[in-house]
Design a protein that fits this description.
There is one protein chain. The chain is 27% helix and 33% strand. It has 129 residues and is α+β, with helices and mostly antiparallel strands. It has a domain of 89 residues: Gcn5-related N-acetyltransferase (GNAT) (Aminopeptidase, 3-Layer(aba) Sandwich). A hairpin with a 4-residue loop joins strand 5 and strand 6.
């Protein structure tokens, strides 16, 4: 997953960012859950959501596999799972004026503004049954 995260063209990790391979462990084992999409046994897309806060911690597609619908394929089960945990609202931030911002707008997220860090903020509310 970290290989995919480091390969993106936008929303790159800065040298000061303290996200390393071991950073993923609590998000996958205690405070959240993750989904991956593989091709030939290699992870090409992944998504991780926090069930306690409703925050989407990560959703990335390796640049060599963009445009194949993989973002949606890892996003949808994550969203369903988060709402199944009893959350009424889930949220995320992404770089402003990026392709990711367009992706979230196109896949049902509501833009809520620019956060204090200059990132685009989005939310989704639990669907009515």
């Amino acid at each position: 997953m970290h290989r995919v995260r480091k390969a993106v063209r936008e929303n790159k990790l800065s040298l000061n960012t303290k996200i390393h391979e071991e950073t993923y462990v609590p998000y996958l084992e205690t405070i959240g859950r993750g989904w991956v999409l593989e091709e030939d046994g290699v992870i090409v897309a992944f998504a991780i959501g926090e069930h306690q806060t409703g925050n989407i911690w990560a959703l990335f597609v390796h640049e060599d596999h963009e445009g194949k619908g993989y973002g949606s394929k890892v996003q949808e089960p994550m969203i369903e799972w988060l709402f199944a945990q009893g959350l009424d609202r889930i949220h995320l931030t992404t770089g402003a004026n990026t392709r990711a911002q367009g992706f979230y707008a196109a896949t049902g997220w509501t833009f809520t503004g620019i956060d204090p860090h200059g990132d685009a903020a989005f939310e989704r509310l639990r669907p009515s049954v």
